[in-house]
Q: What sequence folds into this?
């Protein structure tokens, strides 16, 4: 039997699904490919140097919307960077040496 619910018999017997129909679009609604608390995968397209620049721009006071659009991040990931929930090991870059 697959993951679909069959009146009273389903893959997750500890859940009371009642007479809920099977979900034909997503037959595996309770699985995930990563830990919910591990968000570092969401910034994998950035190098450590780019993350350092993003952190420096946050500290400098740049608007989240500007940084997010420049680096294809959502503002939630910027908050995660700011508060050290992800990439806490990366120090902010020194933007004084960079040409604007």
A:
């Amino acid at each position: 039997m697959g993951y679909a619910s069959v009146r009273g018999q389903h893959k997750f017997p500890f859940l009371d699904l009642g007479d809920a129909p099977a979900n034909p679009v997503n037959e595996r609604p309770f699985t995930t490919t990563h830990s919910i608390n591990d968000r570092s995968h969401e910034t994998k397209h950035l190098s450590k140097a780019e993350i350092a620049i993003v952190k420096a721009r946050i500290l400098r006071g740049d608007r989240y919307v500007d940084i997010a659009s420049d680096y294809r991040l959502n503002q939630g990931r910027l908050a995660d960077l700011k508060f050290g929930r992800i990439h806490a090991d990366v120090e902010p870059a020194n933007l004084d040496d960079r040409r604007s």
The helical segments are 48-60, 64-71, 75-82.
